[in-house]
Amino acid sequence: MKKLILNYHYFVLGLAGFALNSCNSKFRVWVGNDAQKVYNLKYGDDKRQKMDVFLPADYPRESPVVLIIHGGAWKYGRKEHMIKIQKMLFDNNIPSVNMNYRLVKKGITYREQLEDIDLAIEKFNSLSEKSELLPDNYILLGESAGGHLALLYGYKNPDRIKKIISLSGPTDFYSEEYLKSFYSKYTSGTIQKMVGTKFKRKNLSEEFKTASPVANVSSVPTLLFQGNTDFLVNQKQGLALDSVLTRMNIPHKLVFMENTGHAPRFFNKTKRDSIIYPNILEWIKK
C-alpha cells in the first residue's frame, strides 16, 4: 500500500523546507512500523498556522481524516491540549490532523479561525494522494470553543465535512432564551470579542446569529457531548442544538452527562474512557 512513507525522501525534503522557513517552529518527523507522525507542519504564514499529522500504519483509502480543533475561549489554547485524543485515534487506526489556529485579538475573530480550518484542510488535501486518502473527507472534532468552530464550519461546508463531534461546544448567541439567561450575562464579553461586534442586548446585531451553529444547521451528522453542571457552556446550549437537529431530522446523538461539568475528559478519566472515547470511536466508524 502506497503511503507517505514510500515517498519519504521527497516528503521530508519538502517538510524540511517548511521548517527552515519558520524559525519559531521545532519540526520533527517520526517514522516507525510504516506509520508517521509529522509535527508542526505549516499550513499558512502565521506562526499559529501549524498542524500535527498522525497517520497509522494501515487504513482503508476511504478512511475519514479527523481534524481536531482545540478549545480555550477562542483566545487561548493550543493543539498540544488535544494530544490525548489524537493518540487515542492513532491507536485505533484513524488518521488525524491536530491544528493550531489564530487566536482572537484585534483584527482576528471567529471568521479568521474558520479560514484557518479551511487552510488546514486545503493543505492536507494537497497531501491526500501521497497518503492514499480521499480529499475533502473529514470529520471535525472540537472541544469547547473548538466545538463551536467545528459545528459552524461543518454546517457551512457539508461538501467536505462528513460528520461533526462537539465536546461542550457553545451553539447559541442570539435567541431570546440566551439573551434572557444569566449565562449570557457572564459570557457576552467573550462572545462579542469572538464575533468582533459590540453586544447590545436590546438591539443585537445579526452577526451574533451568523456566528451561532443553531442558526446554520445543515445535513451533517452531529455528535454532541454536554454536561448538566457545565458552568462555562450552559447545558441549554447543547440541548438547543439537539432540538434543532431533531426538528430537522438530521442524524445526531446527544451524550448528556449527569453530574458533569465542562469538557470532562480533562478531569474525569472514568468518563473519558467509558463514555467519551467509546462514543467518539463509534461515531467515527458507524
UniProtKB/TrEMBL annotation:
It comes from Chryseobacterium caseinilyticum. Residues 51-244 form the BD-FAE-like domain. Transmembrane segments: none annotated. It comes from the Bacteria. InterPro entries: AB_hydrolase_fold, BD-FAE-like_dom, GDXG_lipolytic_enzyme. Keywords: Hydrolase. The keyword Cytoplasm does not apply. SUPFAM superfamilies: alpha/beta-Hydrolases (SSF53474). One of its GO terms (molecular function) is hydrolase activity. PANTHER family: AB HYDROLASE SUPERFAMILY PROTEIN C4A8.06C, ALPHA_BETA HYDROLASE. This is Alpha/beta hydrolase.
